[in-house]
Amino acid sequence: MFKNIIFLPGWSFKAGIWQRQKEYFFKCGTNVLLCDLEKLKDCLDSIDISRTVFIAWSLGWFKLVDYLSAKKQMPSALIGVAPALCFQKPLVRRIIQSFKKDPDALLSSFDGWIFSPKEKISAEFFRQCDFLKKNRQDDNEELLKYLFFLKDIDLSGCFDGFTAPVLLISGKEDIICLSKEARMLREHIPHAVIEEMDAGHLPFLTNSEAFNAAIHNFINNLSDSEE
Length: 227
Prior knowledge:
- This protein is α/β, with parallel strands linked by helices.
- The protein has one domain: Alpha/Beta hydrolase fold, catalytic domain (Rossmann fold, 3-Layer(aba) Sandwich).
- It is about 50% helix and about 15% strand.
- The protein contains 11 helices and 6 strands.
- The chain has helices spanning about 20-25, 40-45, 60-70, 90-100, 105-115, 115-120, 125-135, 140-150, 180-185, 205, 210-225, and strands spanning about 5-10, 30-35, 50-55, 75-80, 165-170, 195.
- Strands 2-1-3-4-5-6 form a 6-stranded parallel sheet, with helices on both faces.
- Helix 1 (about 20-25) links the parallel strand 1 and strand 2.
- The relative contact order is 0.18.
- This is AB hydrolase-1 domain-containing protein.
């Protein structure tokens, strides 16, 4: 039986980006932890990974899987949000070049990319943008380091013998981590379940009700299978 749920953020954001999910799953009686990426190793070294469900978004997904593969450790379950085997190389190279020239301008552009066109005309859009700004990671040196990590990372060999339950959640209109990337990823994890949602890169924020329900159902099935 799992003991913890740990949420990991994506590039340029703090773990507070998961606040809605923390509140939702805390009400369900679950021990919920939000972990910033710079504290990932210390966090993982201090918990029982085998009794932990991880929910990792984009960069958080890549960092977590890379760590678990290197340590050969198996979580209770793994949920990838905007997951892939590798990041789009041409895109990350352009982001690196632009970030070096003008970090603030690049981050402003990035905030536009992570919403779908439909989400940008939603009544919630400006409130969601304010929420993102409040949870922005502001260490530019660290952000650049993560971009070089994304440029080089490839998880192709990381799932050999991976037996933990896996849920892959992607946004149908995500232009950062395309939904087809999650389908390609599933070829390396045949037992994985895929959920494609009406969303861009932020399904947990822009379609939080469906997102939370999908995770809740997945976790409930874990509990049922362990009884």
